[in-house]
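Appendix C: a fully annotated inverse folding record. The material below is reproduced so that readers can follow the format used throughout the book. The structure is listed first as tokens, followed by the designed sequence.
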């Protein structure tokens, strides 16, 4: 079980307001008691109102709760951009509240599984990454809709800077990190770019058509 899923399940177990032993939760979730202890420490640190201690049990105390919400991708993007801005302000109380809220959101977000070579650590990327990548969103969206080629300057995770001409096809959200799936004319292959690592994105006066082997439906990650 992914940790984000397990944290969510623990919160659901505790929602009844009763005292729950770590051993019982460990048996239910098929993990070790030590894992439950670590997860409880994470929940407490992220602001979840949990009371209790090891060897006794845990229960959730009163807190402001919201009904289940289904967010669209743009709504989730707007929420995280707001958190990104809050995290950059000088007010320490607001910053702490933003970080706490972000942890709660991360605890219930599904975590995508990616290729090992592209397995960036979702939870450790700072809010500034989201804020930096967001500046290219309007250009990328417009190019995808118009099927317009882009010239991007991209810095790889290893620090190599390259200039690429691409056919932008699709954007995806991976927990405060956005990626762009595109056909790269330099490599003559599909590539997935982290949007926050795109330095510049320039729309070119050249449109592209759907060609077999270069469409999103042809992409197999």
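Designed amino acids, in order:
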């Amino acid at each position: 079980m992914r940790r984000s899923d397990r944290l969510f399940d623990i919160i659901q177990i505790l929602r009844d307001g009763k005292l729950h032993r770590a051993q019982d939760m460990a048996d239910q979730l098929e993990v070790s008691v030590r894992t439950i202890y670590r997860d409880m420490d994470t929940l407490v640190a992220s602001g979840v109102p949990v009371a209790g201690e090891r060897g006794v049990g845990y229960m959730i105390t009163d807190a402001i709760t919201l009904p289940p919400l289904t967010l669209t991708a743009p709504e989730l993007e707007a929420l995280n951009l707001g958190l990104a801005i809050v995290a950059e302000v000088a007010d320490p109380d607001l910053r702490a509240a933003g970080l706490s809220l972000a942890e709660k959101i991360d605890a219930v977000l599904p975590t995508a599984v990616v290729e090992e070579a592209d397995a960036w650590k979702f939870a450790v990327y700072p809010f500034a990454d989201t804020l930096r990548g967001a500046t290219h969103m309007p250009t990328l969206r417009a190019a995808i809709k118009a099927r317009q080629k882009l010239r991007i300057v991209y810095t790889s995770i290893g620090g190599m800077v390259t200039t690429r001409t691409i056919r932008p096809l699709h954007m995806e959200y991976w927990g405060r990190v956005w990626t762009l799936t595109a056909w790269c004319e330099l490599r003559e292959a599909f590539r997935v770019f982290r949007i926050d690592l795109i330095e510049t994105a320039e729309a070119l006066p050249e449109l592209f058509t759907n060609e077999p082997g270069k469409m999103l439906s042809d992409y197999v990650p």
